[in-house]
Every structure is written in structure tokens, then in C-alpha cells.
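Task: fold both queries, return C-alpha cells.
Query 1:
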Amino acid sequence: MSASFSGELWNGITDIYEAILGHPFLAGMTDGSLAADAFTFYVIQDALFLRRYAQALAEVASHAPDAAQTEMFARHAAGIVAVEMSLHDTLLGDLEIDPAAVDATEEAPTTLAYCSYLLAATRGGSYAEGVGTVLPCYWIYAEVGKYLLGRGSPNPRYQKWIDTYGGDEFDAEVRDVIAVADTLGPGLAVAERERTHRNFRATSRYEWMFWEMGFRQETWPV
């Protein structure tokens, strides 16, 4: 992997990914010990996040250099609304939460910070910088999904989440975005390459922080 640009990006976050795999939120999903209220908190915040993530993908689509890449990112943005939000609606129903209540929920500090970074970086940076910004959410979730799929969960709600992100359909979408990153790498000047690395590492950190937020049910301190 290290010979490709995507491999170069991934090699820059291996410490973060190892920390993610060791997080008690994920361990609690696989052994069933994760508190139900922590998972509920996470699902609600993730539903809020996905709305902004779809906007970030649409921004990336608007900067794409050709119609095929514009279509791909626009399709992925629409797919989040159609597929992943459907999963969240199902989970919210299982958790006996009215989906309308999500609209009235305030974004936790980490959710707001992550979303703000996503939108600022995709709107204000180059196409490559935008791809580097959104890629960790794709890639880390796919790798975590496959990792957890090999372990399973005794809790059917947690297993449903694992099946979604560990499945072949989601993995195929991730591979398409990784392929885009690899086509961009050779043409990047040093400064743009460094900014792409910085964005990739920053949003990878936010991925760890998001699970930490759910585990601790993060609130505003004042």
C-alpha cells in the first residue's frame, strides 16, 4: 500500500486506527456490554453528522475535474440520505426514539467540530484536499466494519450496524474513492500534498473522537 498515494495517507494514521480498534465503544459492541443509552446517543449524533457529511460530499462533487467523478460523489451523497439514513431510522425505531426528535437534538461538541471542519475544508480547499478530508469516514468505517464482522455481536442492534458497514456494497464504494485518491497523488505539488495529508489525519482523529463522544455521551461543559 505504501507505494500508492492512498497507502501513503493510510500509513500516516496507523496509530489513530489502532487506537480506534482498541476503543471501548467498539469492544462493547462486539461483546454486547456497550450501554444502550451510549449507543442511542451515538446513533442520534451520527444521524445529525450524516446530513452534514452528505453536504461535504456534494461540495467535493462540485470540485471534481470530470463528469464521472462528479456523478460518483453526488451519488454517494444521495446514497447517504437514502440508505444510511434508512438504517438510522430503523435503529431509532428499535430504540423507541421518534425520528422527529433528532431534529430537536443539539449537536454535541465533537459532532459540531467535525462537521465544521468537513465543510470548511471541502468548501475552501482543492479537489484533492476535499477527497482527503472525506476519505477517512469512508475508509475507517469500512475497515472497522470488516474487523467487527469477524467478531460479531450478541446484540441484534449492534450486529445490524456491523453488517451495514462490514458489507461488500459499502466496501465497493470505499474502493472507488480510494482509487480516485490514487489518481490524484502523482499530480500534487508539495504544499497541496501536505494539506491533503493534514486533512486526512485531522478527520481520522475526529473519527476516534466521535466514538469517544458516544461512549461518554458528551455534553457542552457550559
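Query 1 returned. Query 2:
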Amino acid sequence: METAEKLKDIVKQKYGQIALQDKEDNQASCCGAGGCSTEVYNIMSDDYSNLEGYNPDADLGLGCGLPTQFAKIQPGNTVIDLGSGAGNDCFIARAETGENGKVIGIDFTPAMLEKAKYNAEKRGFNNVEFRQGDIENMPVSDNTGDVIVSNCVLNLVPNKDGVFKDMLRVLKPGGHFSISDIVLIGALPEAFRKDAEMYAGCVSGAIQKDEYLDLIKTNGFEKITVQKQKPIILPDDILKKYLNDEELSEFKTGKTGIFSVTVYAEKPKAKKAACCGPDCCN
């Protein structure tokens, strides 16, 4: 069993390589992990091109949803993007939060940060900044964000519980998140979990949907809602790398499934102070 730090190193190395690939290569792979399918089509991500603020050169084709579309971002909000990559979701969030808002992108891959900063500087986006750090220990002060977004990132993090804890810390009371991620329903064949490239490709790092939602609840979030869910259909030439014919048949006809979900939840609002004397309630 790989340690958490070893898995993080694998992901960091892989996504450093992905930062240098073009979108077409990433979309024809397992979340950009490598050329793992001869069937060239977009396995995971949705189409961003109609969203305001979209910049094609910041879109590496690594997402598995459209969290910014569901995130209820308001003008003037401070938005934090976890695993910001080349800046795609940050720039869309900026279009919604406006000149008076602020967007903070967090990523731990130097090559991604360099690409994102270049994209922001080229467009003169002074209210978008990118910080290097782990998303379970963000370089962000307590009670900073109005909204958190993230796109196909938490599944890559071994310590998902730590991420949700830190999300609660950095959100303002009453703030919320909308995150797209990969989850499982039913048991995933063990063969998937033994391959580091599938881990970096989003699937083997995913956990059960019920466990995922329970982590959100136990960390103190409320109003938890699945805003969107769609199945991820992997092509046979990927599955056959890991499964024999009998296992492939069972996988495709059984209850096991890989899904993209977009989940919304809120940090509870601050409680009002109790009345402390004869005059304080007047």
C-alpha cells in the first residue's frame, strides 16, 4: 500500500507532465494521466466554452464537471479554487465575482502554477492570484472565502477528511462550496487500485459516494445537495488493461459504477451571542 506522501508525489509528478501537454492529449486520456485509450474522446469533462470568462488556453481538459456553473457566485465574492491547474475555473469565477471580487487559486504543482500565473498576467487579471500549497492545509487565513470551487481534484488527495476540515476553516460563516469530483457506487475491481497511472487519472483515488457525502456531513457542513450526477463510461481498451473478459462482463453489467458528481454544501452561519444582562437585549 502506497503511503499518502508517495501518492501525492506521484500525482505532483504526473500533473507536472500534464501541464506541458495540450488539451487534446489530456482529453484522450484518463484525466490527463497519459495516452491510455486509443478511443479519442473526452472521458470526463463537460464543455466550458459557453461560460463567460472561459479562456481556451487555460482549459487543459482535466475537469469532470462545471462547478462554477452551480456555485452561486455573487459580485464582490472571494472565491477559492482548490487544485486550480492552469486557471480555467478561476477565470470563470472572476467573470462572476467581477472587478470588486477576488479569486485565489491553490495548486501544489509548480508547472501548473507557472502556467496559471502566465495566463492571469497576460490578461491583466489583478484580482486573481495563485498560491502553492496542499488543499488540506491551505495557505489561506480563517474565514476568508465566500465560495469554494474545485473540479476533479479531491479524488486525487489521500486525506479527503483533512481537505473538508480545511474547507470549513477557510470559508466565512454562511459560505458555501460547489465541487465536482469522481465517486464510486459499488466495489471497484482491485486491479484499478494497483496502478499509479489510474490513480493519477482520477479513478482509483475515488471513494464511495456515501462515504464522500458522509465526510462532508461529519465535518460540520449543512444543506448538502448533489447538484449533478453523471456516469463515467470508460472504453473497453482501458478496462481490458485491468480486467479479464469475465471481470469485464461483470463490471459492465453489475451495480458497480464510476460517477462524476457536483456537490453543494454550506458552512453554518455564526450563532448570535446570548443575551448577557438586563440592557443588552433592548
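Both queries returned. Flag for query 2: The chain has one domain: 4-266.
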